[in-house]
Amino acid sequence: MDESIVVMDCDLYTYDAAIERYERERHHSWLCRQRKLSEVRERQKRKRARLVRQRVYGLTITLLGLLLMTLGAGEGTLCIIAGIGVCISKKIII
User: What is the DSSP string of 1-59?
Assistant: First the structure.
């Protein structure tokens, strides 16, 4: 019986080669985590900037409402209420 049956085919490594491969894979996973973290930080930065812009718009609408109320227009009250609502909201409205 001269049949050769392959039970398992795998690469064999020396200890040093295995350590090197492990370090390379670990470094790769570290790089992937760092990339994800930087994407999350960038997203948070953009959201913060949008919230600041929204608050500035809210203050502008409120000041416009105050100006309209001084001029005697009835829409000033609505602008003030809307402006304050936009200022204090934590969700992106604008």
Answer: --------------HHHHHHHHHHHHHHHHHHHHHHHHHHHHHHHHHHHHHHHHHHHHH
